Amino acid sequence: MSYYLISAAAFIFILGSAVVLHEFGHFIVAKLFRIRVETFSVGFGPRIIGKKWGHTDYRVSAIPLGGYVKLGGDESNAPLEGAGASDIPPEEMFNLRPRWQRILVALAGPVMNIITALAIPFTGAMLYGVPATPSATVYYVTKGGAADVAGLKPGDRIVSFNGTENPNWDSISGDALLSPGQPLPVIVDRNGERLSLVVKPTSRTENGESAGFLDFIPDYGGLPVVIGDVSPGSPAAEAGLQINDRVLTIGGESVKSAAQVTEFIHDHDAQPIQITVQRNATNVQITTSTRRLAGGKLGINIGEQYPLHSAGAGSALGYAYQQNMQILRLTGKALGQVFTGQRSVRNTLSGPIGIYQAASKSVERLGWDGVFGMLGFLSLNLGIFNLLPIPVLDGGAIFLLLIEGLLAVIGLSLSATVRDRIQQVGFVMVLLLMVFVITNDVLKQFNRTSEPEKPAATAPAK
To answer: How far is CA 314 from CA 121, 311, 369, 425, in A?
Structure first.
């Protein structure tokens, strides 16, 4: 199967699963309350295909930017969902149900997404274990990289990073990721002496998105450096390198990190390279030719093999919670940078094209792990976004129901006209957001393809 077909399949699976799970949350709670469900739609707009079972039309619609469950008697989102049937028995109508039931139905979609986001890392931890967390100690520094320029040395222990005391590695790498090219204060402990340094994360742009990298490897306690992929017909394949080979030495030097291998290959372009690998408990000596691919690459994908520790239900749940809180923290920080002018809206928000590119990259690099990781990330963001108090979204519906409840205490109510106007404003806001993210994706894609090709030395070579 071609790369593009795999990417398209991954995109459809990830986006479709996130939407279907969200709508299933609304659907199942409505069914539990015996509320009529008229439509279960993946996408908005005109119906493309579908099948009607009982009173419910299960369909795929033309605009793949979400989905909806049309409940009997609920006309609040008629501009998006269309008008409902007029012959629904009163006992099956959503709008005649107690307010608490309507709130639970609205909450069920985002809650289902959040449960999905927790369930994916929880299941992975139970099946395979929890990845080891490195200490905030420098293990290997890339020559000429951000850490090297800042003065960090192997063995330095980071005791403060960007104002955070005793940070963990996830916090350090996350802050760097969102701060490309920005000076970040660092305090390190070097042989018992505290030194204040400033590091500017190296800015790298992929698919129009800028991200910062520190160019050092934290201390995992010495990890195997393993070849994850070998391109057919590449110099690496011709030399006899294979997937799962553990790289022991390169050019006579003991290998401590994947970055070291990448750097050595880059520094010895068009030269034969002596490599010792371990294959099936046997050391194999390999010499590459002088041939290179574009950018001076050998044609290998290489990385550290991170250890996994077995986990019980409690530690797996804790790991899942921490992973999702880290995503929320970074997302919140990125949005905060937008409002303070440190990050552009264009480089922060993505639509379907951006999701497609991220899905493609995830499946290419990590296979099924990348697919489910992306699904968890998208589900979490979809669940939180839908809780925002914006009319048309679930959070907007909950907010209006709460306002109605407060007004009812003093004998007031929202008129149908006011509700309609609020929903119309929400509809326009969501429509404008859709137009913005799609246009933003197209412009980023256009700029990416129109940019002149960068010199090979600016990109890591392998």
So the answer is: 13, 8, 22, 44
